[in-house]
Amino acid sequence: MRSPNLVKMVSGNFVGVVLLVEIIVVMMSGCRFEANGLSMDYYFRSCPILDPIMKNTVFRALQADPTLAAGLVRMHFHDCFVEGCDGSVLIDSTNDNTAEKDSPANLSLRGYEVIDAAKEQLERMCPGVVSCADILAMAARDAAGGPMYEIPKGRKDGRRSRIEDTINLPAPTLNASGLITIFGKHGFTVEELVALSGAHTLGVASCVNFKKRLNDVDQNMDADFAKTLSKTCSSGDNAQQPFDATRNSFDNLYFNTLQRKAGVLTSDQTLFADSRTSGVVNGFALNQAMFFLSFQRAMLKMGALDVKDAPNGEVRKNCHKIN
């Protein structure tokens, strides 16, 4: 008679091998990936030094400040969910226009200096070639530090950035139904929604975004964790609480945290509380390789949202203003 533990171990190893093989296949086939006018080799001739510049710039930035990883991933997300992945979140406000970055939802975004540093180098080496939208997409990939994958390029920079458009960003107070609706409008499945939410394995949340849970006595929150959040908020609305215990490491600990009812935001814990998403949370909590693969796929899909082509976009000389 076979030991149940042995069966579990063999089954787990088999799943891991299957996922590893699938990841390798995706990575090998990635070089041929093309969508919405994007391609893996878009800058092969025009700026072959792009990848080394991006990786080195992000690496140096994270060495100086590891918390920028969460900022860059979040900035890419906020860019793509408003007017598509077109670098519109980077544009500064002017006297006659309040831009996306000055929306309350974007005031806590960080990492603009990393994008600027990369753009400055690229303009010296490949002037007028690499878009700010592509720089942001690549910076987010390199900053995450989780699954390694190639992304298609060729995004053009948008010419619109308005504060009113940020209404399309998902709020931290949304429940699963609201999240499924918003992500569904962009073509994401429930699994992809949960995978992208897993980016919260990086970074922190400010008290102002979760204190209402304490006032309303959220039944989906562990009582001891509620005390932790209350202690955090005793320092004010800007006090920060990490999403999980490894705030600067890309792993699946975020999902284990949700299983313990210690999700920081309503939009985090609802993923475990709702039956439509809880199964995916449990799967990712059990198998990090599965999470990494789903996250990679979801990021590739998000990076292709409503990209601008040449007639409808440009390559900005300065990421902060339209040419």
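Second entry:
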Amino acid sequence: MEQAVVHGISKSWTRLCDYFHFQRFVAKPCAIALNIQANGPQIAQPNAILEKVFTAITKHPDEKRLEGLSKQLDWDVRSIQRWFRQRRNQEKPSTLKRFCESMWKFSYGLYIFTYGIRFLKKTPWLWNTKHCWYNYPYQPLTPDLHYYYILELSFYWSLMFSQFTDIKRKDFAVMFLHHLVAILLITFSYVNNMARVGTLILCLHDSADALLEAAKMANYAKFQKICDLLFVMFAMVFITTRLGVFPLWVLNTTLFESWEIVGPYPSWWVFNLLLLVIQGLNCFWSYLIVKIACKAISKGKVSKDDRSDIESSSDEEDSEPPGKNPHTATTTNGTSGTNGYLLTGACAMDD
């Protein structure tokens, strides 16, 4: 088990290096060709007092502190709230960077899903899941299967590392749990030679990833109709595979067929417990997708993702209130300096 984890971590660093090369020589030129600029959110007006509070005390001042700062600076409370919102958004990545990240994940997702399909169509357990348990645990580990597993494990380790450097979203804890359970499942199934059923699980969960990242890229490029179409396709594939195929096909074989052929054994309980946790997360994300779809039906386009990590405000709040010292900020490209950074859809979601 230790060897598999170490191998996965070392490969994850390789994946990270590949990402930076891909971003520089492939994704960035594509983004520039699509006229996606590196503009980020509005830049907060320089202010030493507010900057000190932001960096040393709190990024989310309460009402009492806001009133104190208002008196100290002779600014109204709304202007100070807007300054803190802009300052928080200032630390978040630009549309260009987001596009590059999505293009990398799209390329990986498309490649790994294609590889999984090509690998599995030659195996007997794709067509009859009972073959996952015949002659268990004395099943050969082929080079193709080993490569598939290590590639998946390295990707999830890279997600685990990058999650702590990326902007934290509302579902940070859920995503952390997902990555942790995925790494445990991949490692545990590899060590216990449950790799056959493991390949089914991996390929099934990879099926919707490329569609999601493609929808996000379309959103960043401001191709709203394409984004909406890709999101509908993603939602259909995601809900069908994870709420339909996964429990009826995969959980059926891990819970019942394995019990029938192999019988209960200690790792059986651990493995199925982890799979049930994954299924619980699948239900949670399916709920979010359905929620976004319902908003899309009512508004005529995919609505803003509840997990979005960019803070926005109403037009009234963004307009400068009259009276006290004005608090100005530049705008570009007609989107408050964001070049489409205010995501308009579920395209903001990450799997």
